[in-house]
Design goal:
This protein is mostly helical and 402 residues long. Helices cover 76% and strands 6% of the residues.
């Protein structure tokens, strides 16, 4: 079986694009004809996916708007397949049209919305798919789509804010790195004869010896070092995409100074919001915990939540086993415990999520303010080290001559 990308024309004259798994191109043509579609182009999907990788990625703003419009159409009683058809025709992005067309085709063949989205992981991240899955299984699909859109908008807003705040530090870091590399690779070797002469007269300072070794090493093996770093980054990304890699990285992320609380609070907020929404829509606690654990966006927290669900099935309350994992802040656990006693957990969970989101915004502001001086110190220290290592032997020689 092979996956084929197709472009066909419907009876109404609309172009339809999507993917079909079949044994041959002829079988795809026959399948399209059975659906009253006139094939225009059919080719193996590999060539299409290869070309799509070089297209500009779908902007978060467009993705959020598409999900919001889909939520509005469903809320107004428009069937899912028809809603996707409308969005496909209105989308300004050809790539988004192709994605929506493929999702529509898969749903018409019996797939759920989140399952169809899962075939486009380069467009819909795991968290988006998990939230939509929660909405599908909890019978609040419209609300889950709206929540996903709001989450994407908040994420993009924070990302833009961080990018804006990091523009100057990033410029300094780039400029400082270039200056340091130019000094080490091109400027330092010009002094090698002088330093060799000084070394014969006496020992060179340790900083100068280190600088000379680093300059010689980068001059000889700089290209190999760059290739090794690129390979290491590629391998790390592949490993990070695996289950074991994600669990290890998520565990490290939660323990990082400054950044750790931000990652953990963001995951806790998503868990509380999804769990509250599920409970409010009548989903049983154990099922709601199973779904919301996947929506947290952190494997370590999700594992702890699923372990807590096992204790709840034996008769414990939610707050008792959750507090044992040590990942959720004590004040949040206290609020959950009080809400359980008051039988108002679903409403309190959403209030908790709102409060955590505000806290995360404040933490991000603090983080950005700390990064700029930290980068300045690091790059300034690197340049200062090179300058001192170059000038120190000269000063020592002048002192000895005096």
């Amino acid at each position: 079986m092979q996956e084929f990308a197709y472009t066909a024309r419907s009876m109404t004259g609309q172009d339809v694009r999507g993917l079909i798994t079949a044994d041959s191109r002829g079988e795809v043509m026959a399948m399209l004809s059975e659906k009253a579609l006139c094939p225009i182009d059919v080719h193996p999907a590999k060539s299409q996916s290869f070309s799509l990788n070089f297209n500009r990625p779908i902007k978060t703003e467009l993705l959020a708007n598409t999900l919001t419009q889909l939520s509005d159409l469903l809320a107004n009683g428009v069937p899912l397949l028809q809603s996707l058809e409308v969005l496909m025709q209105q989308s300004p992005s050809e790539r988004m049209q192709t994605v929506l067309s493929d999702i529509r085709t898969r749903i018409s063949e019996g797939a759920q919305l989140h399952e169809a989205m899962g075939h486009h992981e380069d467009v819909f991240n795991e968290l988006t798919i998990s939230i939509v899955r929660a909405g599908t299984e909890g019978a609040f699909l419209e609300e889950s789509l709206q929540q996903t859109a709001e989450f994407l908008e908040r994420t993009e807003e924070l990302r833009s804010k961080v990018r804006g705040a990091m523009a100057y530090p990033a410029f300094l870091a780039t400029a400082g790195s270039i200056v340091t590399l130019v000094l080490i690779v091109f400027f330092v070797p010009k002094f090698s004869d002088l330093f060799a002469q000084l070394e014969r007269q006496g020992t060179l300072p340790t900083a100068t010896v280190i600088l000379l070794w680093l300059s010689d090493f980068l001059g000889r093996f700089g290209i190999l070092v760059a290739m090794a770093m690129a390979g290491a980054i590629y391998g790390l990304r592949k490993w990070a995409a695996s289950r074991s890699g994600r669990q290890k990285i998520d565990g490290v992320k939660t323990k990082l100074p400054v950044f750790g609380p931000i990652f953990l609070n963001g995951a806790t907020s998503r868990f509380c919001r999804i769990l509250g929404t599920l409970l409010r829509n009548g989903v049983p606690m154990l099922k709601a915990l199973e779904i919301s654990s996947d929506s947290a966006g952190n494997v370590v927290l999700g594992t702890a939540i699923r372990q807590s669900a096992e204790n709840i099935s034996s008769g414990e309350s939610l707050s008792a086993p959750l507090s044992k994992c040590g990942l959720i802040p004590p004040n949040v656990m206290a609020m959950i415990g009080i809400a359980e006693e008051a039988n108002n957990l679903e409403n309190v969970l959403n209030n908790i999520a709102d409060g955590i989101d505000k806290k995360v915004a404040r933490q991000l502001d603090t983080m950005v303010r700390l990064i700029e001086p930290a980068l300045l110190m690091v790059m300034g220290s690197a340049v200062l080290f090179v300058i001192v290592a170059l000038l120190l032997p000269v000063f020592e020689m002048s002192t000895s001559m005096s």
